[in-house]
Amino acid sequence: MAAESGNLDTFGEALDKIDFWGSSSTNPDDMRNNCVSVSTARMDHYKDVEELWKDLYGHSLPDRALKFPEILHLLRRTGYDFGWKKFVAIGKKTAYQVFDSTDYTGNPYDKPASGDDDMLFCYTRKDGSGHCVNYLRESLKVQYTEQAPFHYQAKRIFLDFQRHQDGDGGPQLKADIEAAEKIIVLFSVKCIGTDDDWRNAMAKRDARRQALVDAGLTPAWV
């Protein structure tokens, strides 16, 4: 069964449908410091939401809670087009196992993202709470054989920048994610604009990434 998918126009509705906000233990009313806004900023290599807001709007964050519609507006102003995919338990497979089995299955087109490997990984827990972290694939290797023309090997990394400055949630984060009830992965599809716009965006992004590294911080992809 194909995973449900969509774009930014339906991203909020998709989160609502999995009750992402309903019992969230991550203080959903203060979106400025919430997992989604933090992960959004780090996905594009900003140090924090304040830095992202200043770059896109030219002034500091408003002195109030940052709501989800404003986060969507932030995403739209980044200059990227986004898509999402939803993963739920099927039969004896957990939501994570369904995600895992459809990510690099041997078909190069059957994966959450097309192009960049920087993603938001939103999930719900059995206790009804929701959380969002950054997800990346590192050390991608493609092996060609006559029997398996497309074989992908990648190390999956999940980073929780809301709770850990370096994003490292350790074994506890891994166990939390693997026990997820429902999962929605948001990923960048393409840069909106001309080829020059894309090259300029990549140059700025690389510069932000290097600034994070120079400051001893962990970028959201390597």
Written overview of the protein:
With 222 residues, the chain is an alpha+beta fold. 34% of the residues lie in helices and 23% in strands. The protein has a six-stranded antiparallel β-sheet, sandwiched between helices. Mean pLDDT is 77; it is low at 23-29 and 104-116.
Please give the order of strands in the largest beta sheet. 1-2-6-3-4-5
Low-confidence stretches: 23-29, 104-116
Sheet of most strands: 6 strands, antiparallel
Count of discrete alpha- or pi-helical segments spanning 4 or more residues: 7
What is the H/E order?
EHHHHEHEEEHEH
Q: Which strand-content bin applies to the residues?
A: 15-25%
Specify the structural class.
alpha+beta
Write a compact overview of the structure shown.
The protein has 222 residues and is α+β, with helices and mostly antiparallel strands. Helices cover 34% and strands 23% of the residues.
Tell me the layout of helices and strands:
Elements lengths: L4 E3 H10 L17 H9 L5 H9 L10 H10 L2 E9 L6 H8 L16 E6 L5 E14 L7 E9 L10 H9 L3 E10 L3 H20 L8
Antiparallel strand pairs: 1-2, 2-6, 3-4, 3-6, 4-5
Characteristics of this structure?
222 residues, alpha+beta, 6-stranded antiparallel beta sheet, 23% strand
